[in-house]
Amino acid sequence: MIRFSRYIWLYVLLSSFVLVPGVFSLFRWGLRPSIDFTGGTVLEVMTEKRIEESRIREFAKNHAIDLVDLSQNGKNGYTFRMKPASVEAVNAFQADLQKSTSGKFDVLKKDTVGPTIGNELLYKTVMASILVIIAILSYVAYAFKSVKFGVAAVASLVHDMLVMFGSFSILGHFAGVEVDTLFVTAFLTTMSFSVHDTIVIFDRIREYQKKDLRTNLADLSNIALTETIGRSLVNSFTIIFMLLSLVLMGGVTVRWFAMALLIGTITGTYSSPFIAVPVLLLLDKLEKNK
Amino acid sequence: MKKNPKKLFLFLLILTIFVAVIDLPEKFVISIPWRGSVIQKEINPPNIDIGIGSLRFQKELKTHLGLDLAGGIHVALEADMKEIPVASRMEALESVRQVIERRVNFFGVSEPVVQHVRSGETYRVIVELPGVNDIEQALSLIGETAKLEFREVTENQESTQSAFLFPTLANTKSVDLSGKDLKKATVSFNSNNGEPEVAIEFTPDGGRKFADVTKRLVGKPLAIFLDETPLMWPTVKTEITDGTGVISGGFTFDQAKRLTLQLNAGALPVSVSVVEKRIVGATLGADSVARSVRAGLIGLGIVALFMILKYGWLGAYADMALLVYSLLTLALYRLIPITLTLPGIAGFILSIGMAVDSNILIFERFREEYRKGKPWAIAMELGFGKAWDSIRDANFTTIMTSIVLYNPGNWDFLPTSGLVRGFAATLFIGVVISLFTGIVVTRTFIRVLYRGPKGGKS
């Protein structure tokens, strides 16, 4: 048996290592919403020759386009993010770009989302999130019928949520990664993974609680964790292998989606034994001291 | 089931072969060198074509690629319904949709999607055109309102009488009467023979113009053009002064109804504006598919290897079940069919990782029981039995989440984004199929093939 309950300080340290910068970034810089939510245009092109950045900015200025972000991907790939602008302006901007460079000029992607749709999508995504979270919480309530276990499971979910939003806030600030509908999808999916890991461990603890009334909760949880940690890790490893290969080798368009899933899976796996269980023990202690 | 695992095993084998046939790659050429010459054969998945009596079931089995993979455009158009009475807004939207659909068919796009969406007070038409290259042209064509026009034939009398005359823009000229002058068109029935007809009603101004035109063209054809395509060219019988007319011509009810919709669409002052536009170049899609498929295969290989290293023969059986799982899932994508998007592929790859999940739960339980000294066969059955609760719990929330994300009821307040749906659909199918393969298939393989751990008690 591994005495997991002795190393709570380590889990606190590990989590704060990720949580503190993440939450700081979340408050300081917030998230970088994609045009899915704000409206606007994203134009992604691939050219044969380089285009000077100053010229790009000049073109944008000429057509009164508010260039929010300009990033280069690969050697001659450009992504332009702009605030909502007229179709004519965007087309003229694109035509100028094409004229300024000789050789091939491929439009890889051109997304325009009207501001109304952006608001609507934001609202719908929030609604979907609320619905999923209600579903998960009622499942937790149904599965445990105990406030202590329920609160501990929710604490680990909150932890995972902060890790995901925090890391995407950092990624957004330093690497320009945006939060779009797919990020929210990844978030909700990994939340549902996270809760089942917790349920497996808690189930074990309660199984032992019924059999053995004398041993204290800390020891019981140590036994349960020792038994389940192997399968939890192995289980998540297979998912992590798949996602890692997708992040490293998959197409550009799903990279950050796969990344969100990956971060979610890792924190989901971690939080069940190292957040949910310690919180449970803490609550148990508080109850006994009363 | 325990009575006869061999029968089940045979059934699973047949099922696997069956789905493997469905999964055959499209347009894949194999070359077999044989006695000095090379035999070339193109492989394609079979198409279903079953006829029982008058019932006919036809299905082309191929993978449907979403816009983000095939390249193409996605446009959401919002109709301005301010001037349309609330009661007839849906009807107006439907006619807008039909007009757009007809325009889209002009492109010869293989699988266009044109659907109307009403959410609250907004009325939209979503258009998806896979593989369209000339995006600007496509957009300008879609965005216009339907143009209904009456034209007179300019060629001489004799040729107009002949049945072979086909009005074109060249041999006709405008009579300055257009959709704007039309008040509405409705389906009516001929009082003599009961045939469906289309009754048209002009605005007061249009009625006056119509009277002038019909007076001038008695005995001559008056061609009706919709979006510069001749719709019909009835011959004017008498001068019409009351601003109404009847278009007859041996319509079926459906034809008459469709024509009314088209005429109303041309007549309705519904202007549409683009609120969302997504364009994906074909190169980006193709590149992404290739990369993601490769990533998926590599991941699959690692998972398979990992299972064998960790669980030995048991892992190998789990891998076989995983193979059945992959084939079955792909076959379902083709049968349902599920439109594959890039997030959908990610969902599939993710679900492969999760498919071995139940096997791991079972094998770990088995090891526990086996360590306690139970014979392996009993320990294995216990493993399957005891792990079931955890497996059910583990998958329940994922299934719930994927249902919410898919939004099967098309609810207004939930997202209907194609990308999110693509992911939710593959995730849902993945989880459900993995329950079947992880438990039933693996168990059958083990019952029939497994001979116990080396040196173990039996």
Explain what the structure shows.
The complex is a heterodimer of chains A (290) and B (458). In chain A, a hairpin with a 3-residue loop joins β2 (67-73) and β3. Chain A contains 9 helices and 4 strands; from the N terminus they run ααβαββαβααααα. Chain A folds into 2 domains: 4-34 and 117-289, Multidrug efflux transporter AcrB transmembrane domain (Multidrug efflux transporter AcrB transmembrane fold), CATH 1.20.1640.10; 40-113, Alpha-Beta Plaits. Chain A has 290 residues and is α+β, with helices and mostly antiparallel strands. Chain A has a 4-stranded antiparallel β-sheet with strand order 2-3-1-4. The mean pLDDT of chain A is 83. Chain B is α+β, with helices and mostly antiparallel strands and 458 residues long. Chain B has 2 domains: 5-45 and 281-449, Multidrug efflux transporter AcrB transmembrane fold (Up-down Bundle), CATH 1.20.1640; 72-280, Gyrase A, domain 2, CATH 3.30.1360. Chain B contains 12 helices and 17 strands. Chain B has helices spanning 5-22, 67-70, 89-105, 135-143, 157-161, 204-216, 253-267, 282-311, 313-335, 342-371, 376-406, 418-449; strands spanning 28-34, 37-43, 48-52, 55-59, 64-65, 72-79, 113-119, 122-130, 148-153, 172-178, 182-189, 196-202, 222-226, 229-232, 244-247, 272-280, 339-340. In chain B, a hairpin with a 2-residue loop joins β1 (28-34) and β2. In chain B, α1 packs antiparallel against α12 and α9 packs across α12 (418-449). The model of chain B has no long low-confidence stretch (mean pLDDT 76). Chains A and B meet through β4, α5, α7, α8 and α9 of A and β16, α8, α10, α11 and α12 of B.
